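Office hours follow-up: a student asked to see two folded examples consecutively, so here they are.
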Amino acid sequence: MAATMSERLAYILTMDTTQGVRSLQQLGAEGDKQLAKVEGRLDRTAIGLQKFGAGALAFAGIAGAGLFKLGQGAADAQANMAALEQVVGELAASEVEEWARGSAEAVGLASKDAIEATTQFAGLGKIIKLSGSDLVNFSTGLVELSADFAAFK
């Protein structure tokens, strides 16, 4: 059986088409495989970036809260010193401030607390007409005595 020219051509075209379809299917499968790899890498990258972003956001929140507290503490300290100056005067306030710097070690009070308590006792000293170094000694002495009493619990 001799095949005619048109039969041969049809056979060649059929083989080429079948081969072409197979090649396209292989190409598509390989493309799907590579795309899956890229998607996996993108997913891992996205997860890493989410973790980084969450960490950065948490750090920013903590840093912001810390800075706020720092600013608040500075404002409180400044207000305490202003109140002390009103009660004892500027010169005596500088003496109390210097005493308060060592109060943590000397009497176990933070500087801020020592200044606050000294201001309260200085107000009492003013009522009994004390001033200057007498007022400073009176108020810091009562703060030290109060700290000693508090230590006995």
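And the second, which I mentioned at the end of office hours:
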Amino acid sequence: CRDAGVCAGALQRLLTIPFETDGFYLNALRRAGRNLAVQDVTLNQDDPAQVIVNLTGSLVPGGVCVDAQVQAQLLLTIFQHPEVQSAVIFLEGRNLKQLLDASGLANAASAYRRSEFVTN
């Protein structure tokens, strides 16, 4: 995302979609999230292909299925921009990948990689 404001706008829009739309689309962020909002989105100065997202609010643990849906909705929104290759997402200053990692392998600096979520 060459313009961090575009990424921030897309994420903020995602966070405002109702839990259920037209009886079809379920927004896991609205189910698990409490007052989620985009604080800011910046490009990493050392790696312009990486975005850093700071969110405010909280998540209610929903289990591995809901956690995967939450991550996928955020990341597919971010990775819709082909120039973005990685993303670090913080929720109230804590690394989201680390918070939702059931394996215990992620750390405070862990980044999501495009190759983990986008196949083409």
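Two things to take away from it. DSSP finds five helices and seven strands in the chain. The longest helix spans residues 63-78.
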